[in-house]
Amino acid sequence: MSTTTPPRRAFDALIAEHGLGFGGDYNPEQWTPDVWREDVELMREAGVNLVTVGVFSWAMIEPTPGAREWGWLDEVLDLLHAGGIAVDLASPVASPPPWLGMRHPETLPVDRDGVRLIPGSRNQFSPASRVYREHAAAITRDLAERYAGHPAVCMWHVGNEYGQVDHGDEAAREFRLWLGRRYGTIEALNEAWGTAFWSQRYADFDEILPPRRMPYLVNPTQSLDFRRYSSDQLRECYRELRDVIRATGAAQPITTNFMGFHALTDYWAWADDVDVVSDDQYPDPASSDSPADIALVQDLMRSLGRGRSWVLMEQAISATSWREHNLPKSPLRARRDSLQAVARGADAVCYFQWRQAKAGAERFHSAMLPHAGSDSDVFRGVRRQGEDLKKLTAVAGARVPAEVAILFDWSSWWAGEEPARPTERLSTMTEVTRWYRELWRRGVVADVVPAASDLAGYRTILVPHSYIVTPETASALRTAVDAGAHVVIGPFSGVADENAQVLTGRSPVLLRDLLGVSGEEWGAVPDAGSPLAPADDWDAGRAVAQPHAGILAERLRAEDADVLARHADGDLAGIPAITRRTVGTGAAWYVGAVLDQATLSAVIADALAAAGITDALGGPAGLLPDGLEAVRRGDVLFLLNHADTRTDITVTGSHVDLLTGEETIDSVGIAPGEVRALTERRTW
After folding, report:
1. Which tens digit of pLDDT belongs to each residue from 527-583?
2. What φ, ψ does residue 332 adopt, rounded to 5°?
3. Rounded mean pLDDT of 161-177?
4. What secondary structure letter does DSSP report for 217?
5. Residues 647, 473: contact at Cβ < 8 Å?
6. pLDDT for 172-229, tens place per residue?
7. Domain boundaries of the chain, sorted by first residue
8. CA dist., res. 306 & res. 454, Å (int)
């Protein structure tokens, strides 16, 4: 690999040459060399061409301080290369060896209650600890210097599932430094945090501590800033090691595994620091909504990479071991999950892990090669997936077009779920998920976009819940509507500024002119709910059997907007619940209450129709048959049947299924659990 090849292009070239990536975490240190040789043969049999090595191998490489044991890793990488299997080589810093914490207890994290955690599990490090970071940099540097030129190494994997939070003295020191950089002066911090409340005013940064256990509620801005700091601190750990690897001359792409909508890390801030976006996904087989919910995560991953392909780094081939009740996936379900990721932009699908562990905490977590060995349904399913992915090389690098955007911001999520709100039942992620499911049911793909994005090109923009709205975000939404977009904004949005201080005036203050509606109070809704009366001319709303609101509603008045539905009785009787303000060919909708799913569906369907949004089949974005997922990636139409019954659907024209070779004309049948990958049949 040329040192002048940009890392992202190196990844794309790898996929172009070898096809879609397929494999998983490989932990050879748990096994003897004779097993390694068997592993390589079985990997070849299964079509595996990519494995991650070394994630938890720090203690094997450095059994005592300063030691380096490379022999076993040399042999493993040589075996894999000889077998034609590329390696995503991990910097093994996620789980330091026990000796580090025992000799340097300041490297161990402290929880909110002041309890210092001990070695014996994993992730037992403080991201703020300079001693930890020195040791992590040292082993990473030596690893990269030794293997940067090894022909097996196609990618570098820094850390693992970054998500550690520390409340100890190491964190206190770094938090103060972070605050100093953010605010400059203690006076500016006091203003931003509103420390006049409850006599919290600080005289110096040295007086500030992480939000440890307190007698009562934590200052919400202190909590928000600590979340921002914690994400940034983890990011600095990643960037430090990324730069160490790059300084050795390593030219391969560098990544780390994200975790979907992870509550502890702001991936908008991280996205440009990875050469390839990678993610770990573990949808719950027990949930009928999991196909739609994981599709949202996959759309996020594609969006983080600005539409480029991404890597599904981890998933379960059957059961996990960390839920209270772990339902296994069937081989058909595991296949469908992998192909769903490919349909939504993944160029590699991998599992945790290759060979099922016989010892340790994850001994019952499924693996591609289970305890029962290769004579198993699980492994036969793995072989089938390897064959499938070879047939889908045509989609490698292809994009997934989207004309719909969902606005999502981590800081707003954090601030919007602090305690002492009108209701703690309103959840940002619950609302984002509920709104997205309506797109999924209609075969409509969405990009997930950060606050204050350039929204040009999107015809429908959904804002399910954005507690924080800045002037920049308000301006971007206004510009989009002026350009003809249809924007739908959900309840309890635009409440606060970037410091989580409530904006004063009629709400949502910065969106009032856009929406043509304003409110004076947010209130929790009684458990019985609030019935809604749709306007006579809102046909979509009147088609809902029993429209109602729950959880939270706002006392609104319409100023320059049409009222589509009002509260029908109770204290809010006559108050607008759903409004729409038309602006040229665009419109701004406000949903001033948490709607039942059927009414929410009617609002989103109306907005999609008004914007002329079509589904993946090319028709109006109406409801698809239950359980059917439709996604178009490049020239390929993916149809995934998540239902227990066969689905037949019209797909106009002649097509060939890349997975089966079957030709179809105008109608396609999809058996339960099956997947179709259709491309137009061409005659030459």
Report:
1. 999 999 999 999 999 999 999 999 999 999 999 999 999 999 999 999 999 999 999
2. -65, -40
3. 97
4. P
5. no
6. 999 999 999 999 999 999 999 999 999 999 999 999 999 999 999 999 999 999 999 9
7. 7-171+208-393, 404-611, 628-680
8. 12
pLDDT of the residue at 452: 83
Query: Cis ω on the peptide bond leading into residue 353 (within 30° of 0)?
Result: yes
Active site annotation includes 314? yes
Question: Which among 62, 161, 403, 674 is annotated as catalytic?
Answer: 161
Using pLDDT thresholds of 50, 70 and 90, give the confidence band for residue 18.
confident
Is 404-611 assigned to CATH 1.10.132.30?
no
Active-site residue (options: 62, 170, 174, 314): 314
pLDDT per residue as tens digits for the range 318-338:
999 999 999 999 999 999 999
Q: Which two tokens stand for residue 540?
A: 């979509």
The DSSP-derived string for 149-161 is T-TTEEEEEESSS
CA separation for the pair 108, 111 (Å, rounded): 10
Q: Which residues of 242-254 are buried (b: 16+ CB within 10 A; e: fewer)?
A: bebbbebebbbbb
Give me the residue label for tokens 């030691």: 67
Q: Which amino acid is at 495?
A: V
pLDDT in the model for residue 684? 30
Specify burial of residue 427 (Cβ count, 10 A radius: 0-12, 13-18, 19+): middle
Helix (H, G, I), strand (E, B) or coil at 64: coil
Superfamily (CATH H level) for 628-680: Golgi alpha-mannosidase II (2.60.40.1180)
What is the full DSSP assignment across 310-344? Answer: EEEEE--SS--SSSSS-PPPPHHHHHHHHHHHHHT
Phi then psi dihedrals of residue 272, to 5 deg: -75, -5
Known active-site residue 387: no
Please say whether the structural domain 7-171+208-393 has been given the CATH code 3.20.20.80: yes
Give the per-residue pLDDT at 3.
45
Distance of CA 288 to the CA centre of its chain: 19
